[in-house]
Amino acid sequence: MTHIRTFLKKYGWGYAFVLPSLLTFALFTLFPVVWSFVISFQKYSLVRGGTWVTPIYANYTQAFTMLNGIFVTSIRNTIFYTVFTVTANIFFGLVLASLIQPLGNRLRTFFRAAYYLPAVTSALIIGLTWAYIYNAQWGFATYLTRALGLPPIRWLSDPDIALSSITLSAVLTLPATAIVLFSAAMGSIPQEYYEAAELDGANPIQRWWHITVPLLKSTTLYLTVLYTIASFEVFERIYIMVPSGVGNSTQTIVTQIYNNGFKEFDFGIASAQAFVLFAMIAALAILQFRVLRSDVEY
Amino acid sequence: MTTEANIFPKSEAIAMRPRRFTFDGWQIVAWIVLIVTTVIALFPMYWLFANAFTPILSTPPLTPIIVPAFKLDNFERLLVNNKFYLNWMFNSLLVAFVITAFHVVFDTMAGYAFAKKQFPGRNLLFILVLSTLMIPIHVTFIPLYIINRQLGLIDSLWALILPGTAWVFGIFLMRQYIQTLPSELIDAARIDGASEFGVFRHVIFPLARPAVAALAIFTFVRSWNDFLWPVIALNKPQNYTLTVGVANLQGEFMTDWGIIFSGAALAALPMIVFFLLFQKYFLEGVRMGALKG
């Protein structure tokens, strides 16, 4: 008894302080993750509960083979979207942050804010706006092609084009976080490096490429992981731009999870696919850490 | 370096001048890139608002509206024809407010304990929390749906609020920040006779205010903009949050684009105003959120 009392007296407050947050975390994140993993090996009915499937990994094989391998197509679409979006985000982030760096404090703040402004709007509304920009009749993009005398492009209804249109809309939604973080990181690079390089006769482009870019490696790594995860989880933009999909051409991993889970109510398959997504994200993050790991300290 | 600059300030100024001069060409290119990209960044939102503020009764004109008419006709029709729009806004506000309040108080407490208190299992618990940061939230949706259904909470705001309190980013953010605060302040307050909770309330919380502001802003914006879970958890139109409601406007008012534009613009407006008011805290928060442990 006295043991417990001294233990509580010494550590009780520590536990009390973490309890509320960790309780909701355990109930609404940790427990669901574990249960979802269980369901991924089950056939789950809302009335009768879960029963194990045979063989035990059947949901995983079925996830890939069902409907002529639509899940494989959706993975391929997701990778297409991710490669272009992440590359563009890092590129634009680096270039635009570099361009605002030499400006005065006020102008720099202005541009950071201007680039960041759209990021406070939900992905859904950004996607909705782009759906209208691509409207086949009165959309701004349609107007542009007409004004330039180009043949009409079926931005969101042509299966060969729809995914590219959606990706383009993501590329042109400039990377607010990257600009802010790169800009902050550039501010902390010691000025002496540039002065030394200048004495050695390096021009601004050389200085940028040989000093700025390498020293931003850890920020680049962080942002690459961040944007890769976000792009892999793309959903809102697609849900709102092509509500019923354009054949299979606009299916992504999360639209598949959503369809199987909450339209077909096949919880086993949807859970299996969610864990495939998890595994892919984890593998990619580890890979990116390996490739881009920063050994530069300053 | 600095002393040298102080001794020869003039010579340095002279040395700078020719460099600026030779790169004028570059500067013009840089300005063009900056202006074009700013237009690209802001254009979609601008276009949405330009359409929302121009009376459109059915189909928008084929020549895009670039200069709005600054009329509120669309908004009027939106609020008259859609009796739930204000409910959606209220629901979004309520959910975001409750979730934010929870995180501001309890994540700061947890962050404090993880940063400054000793107790068995502390590091293990923190690593457990940290390791779930990368798990896609979609993994949790199916069990969350089953749980909420069994509790009879589907189609109520509780179905959004309860899972919303489980976001762990705040615990991580607050721990990182509070770790940088000097422990001497805590010891001093204790010697002055402050209770455990008093230390938190009067020392830690006020000192952590910049991080608290960042946490509050991010939690609020995240909740306000959340879509996928709400669209799963809510069924009846009166229970929707704004994002879900706006996504459904298109099906409901197919022929009245003015209503759809104004509905989307009005949903985006509060966060834009919020950002313009607290810009500094937003951008500071982005930086803080990226702190690495």
Note the topology.
The complex is a heterodimer of chains A (298) and B (293).
Chain A: H1 2-39, E1 42-45, E2 49-52, H2 58-100, H3 105-116, H4 123-133, H5 140-147, H6 162-171, H7 176-187, H8 191-199, H9 204-215, H10 217-232, H11 236-241, H12 253-262, H13 267-292
Antiparallel strand pairs in A: 1-2
Helix pairs in contact in A: 2-6, 2-7, 2-10, 2-13, 10-13, 12-13
Chain B: H1 2-7, H2 9-22, H3 24-52, H4 73-81, H5 85-116, H6 122-131, H7 138-150, H8 158-164, H9 169-179, H10 183-191, H11 196-207, H12 209-225, H13 228-233, H14 242-252, H15 257-289
Helix pairs in contact in B: 3-15, 4-15, 5-8, 5-9, 5-12, 5-14, 9-12, 10-11, 12-15, 14-15
Task: Outline the structure in words.
The complex is a heterodimer of chains A (298) and B (293). With 298 residues, chain A is mainly alpha-helical. Chain A contains 13 helices and two strands. Chain A has one domain: MetI-like (MetI-like fold), CATH 1.10.3720.10. Helix content of chain A is 71%, strand content 3%. Chain A has a two-stranded antiparallel ribbon with strand order 1-2. In chain A, helix 10 runs antiparallel to helix 13. The model of chain A has no long low-confidence stretch (mean pLDDT 89). By secondary structure, chain B is mostly helical. Chain B has two domains: 18-76; 79-289, MetI-like fold, CATH 1.10.3720. Chain B has helices at 2-7, 9-22, 24-52, 73-81, 85-116, 122-131, 138-150, 158-164, 169-179, 183-191, 196-207, 209-225, 228-233, 242-252, 257-289. The longest helix of chain B has 33 residues, at 257-289. Chain B is globular. Classes of the chains: A mainly alpha (298), B mainly alpha (293). At the A-B interface, helix 1, helix 2, helix 3, helix 4 and helix 7 of A face helix 3, helix 5, helix 6, helix 7 and helix 12 of B.
